[in-house]
Amino acid sequence: MRRVAVIGVGQSEFVRAYPGSIRELAFEAFREAMEDGGLKPAAIDASIVCSAPEYDRQRSPAGVIAEYLGLNPQPTFYVETLCSSSTTGVRLAAALIASGQHDVVAVIGFQKMSEISSAESQERMGRGADIQWESPFGTMMPAYYAMYARAHMAAYGTTLEDLALIRVKSSVYGRLNEKAVYRKEVTPAQLADPKDRMAGPVASPLRVGDCCANADGSSCLLLAAEDRARDCRKKPVWLLGVGSASASVNLTGRDLFTGLSVAREAARRAYRMAGVGPDDIDVAEVHDCFTIAELMAYEDLGFAEPGGGRELIRNRATYREGKIPVNVDGGLLSKGHPIGATGGSQVRTIVLQLRGEAGAMQVKEPRIGLVHNIGGVGLYGNVLILGIE
Amino acid sequence: MGQKSEAGLDDRFRRFGTVGFTGITRVNDFIAHLEEGRVAGTRCRDCGQVFFPPCADCRSCFSRRMAWFAVEGEGRLVSWSRLAFGPAGFQEDVPYTIALLDFGGYKVFGRVDRAVSEEELAVGLPMKVRVERLPGDRLSYAFVKA
């Protein structure tokens, strides 16, 4: 098996409404990644296009995007695992490269959510659950994560104030990230004030401030085999571990409600493949679609024992200067969550961190970084571990 | 049961829930049980595996020989959430509460009855299921305190 490295990263700004079509949106991230890696389209052996379906009208989007990016006649295909689509793309790209089929693969994630109303978007997210047995009750993503929050609170005494601290941390770094959609400060007082918009109810116990915003955006990662990676403009960032897992869509098929089994299983596999453990991680990007999701990720990834996540945020251990910095780019909560682009954006952040190119968000000399990207409500899970020599 | 889809198939399941997304399933008899006041799951006649929601096929032994059983007795409330916003088709319904009950051998996902206030809910609360008739000849079920 050949080693695989990330040799170029790009991301569009994440915005409420992108003033262009999906192919143009995809190009924003592609151009940045190609310039970062110093490559021309002919150097790309294959492309993998990732998004969650039904947010725009284009069927089989890989075709139009590969055409617009100048990636014909190389093979291209579409992959989706909802919110974890682009790390699933990374997993496939790594397999194609490690097996010797291709030397350089582009993973392009995109989502243009602004063409449909928020209610329509929520309906589509609801249909990402079990449409036969759950959606007829009127389910939505926030409500499912809210059920996990409720169970976590009941089991461990986690509080709404703890969840507010996650949002507050996110806003500290969102203000530093020029590509984030939400760049304003959020204070604990806002989430505690019933009259403040941030404290408005969404799905109890989660409030507006506990939820990430929809956004339009794209991401692009260029992965390459070792011999190609050595010749590139930037220091290669090695993909040391890839772990993936799935769980029952319907909550009736699950036993764990204080954490995500897919995250635990994917992390176990990724740590084993990389030969590292939670204590070796210097910087992490976790899938904080909701505040509770970040808190559970601390525990699912082994940064804290089950129930110990709240201590990490209370002690600021996940701030940039802390023991394990998490989402120091603002995370989904501040960057926004253009579903198919999110995983690629997380990987980009870790690559920039490991290269020492993260600017105002830079953690001190990280060597090993981790990405935790979840599809649906703990339905699909991908954990990636990246490192620099 | 007198209802047929365009392809001539039994599409009774279309009547399930506030908004239906599935018309045709091999467990359409779930609707017949709701009509008779029962929320029903299936049990494999060959290996005994229990399924809720009901399955037409046994993933343990690959049998297709299923028997229906009624969800009875008390389940424990695993968790719940009260929605302030609803997806398309449910906006008129908010606020409403979704929940999960654990019956020991299986779990049931659904709505909490409107008569139960959120203040009455607690993880572990004993609850039971009750069939609900909705406008437009639709059928569902909801959880009430045991």
Give your account of this protein's structure.
The complex is a heterodimer of chains A (389) and B (146). Helix content of chain A is 36%, strand content 17%. Chain A has 389 residues and is an alpha/beta fold. Chain A has a domain at 4-116 and 214-229: 3-Layer(aba) Sandwich (Peroxisomal Thiolase, Chain A, domain 1). In chain A, strand 10 (368-375) and strand 11 form a beta hairpin. Chain A starts with a strand and ends with a strand. In chain B, strands 4-5-6-8-7 form a five-stranded mixed β-barrel. In chain B, a hairpin with a 5-residue loop joins strand 1 and strand 2. Helices cover 5% and strands 35% of the residues of chain B. Chain B is mostly beta strands and 146 residues long. Chain B folds into two domains: 12-70, no CATH class; 75-145. Chain B has one helix at residues 29-35; strands spanning 40-44, 50-51, 66-70, 75-83, 96-102, 107-112, 126-134, 138-145. At the A-B interface, helix 4, helix 5 and strand 5 of A face strand 4, strand 5 and strand 6 of B.
Considering the chains and any ligands shown, give keywords for the structure.
heterodimer; A: 389 residues; alpha/beta; Peroxisomal Thiolase, Chain A, domain 1; nine-stranded mixed sheet; two-stranded antiparallel ribbon; 13 helices; 17% strand; B: 146 residues; mainly beta; five-stranded mixed β-barrel; three-stranded antiparallel sheet
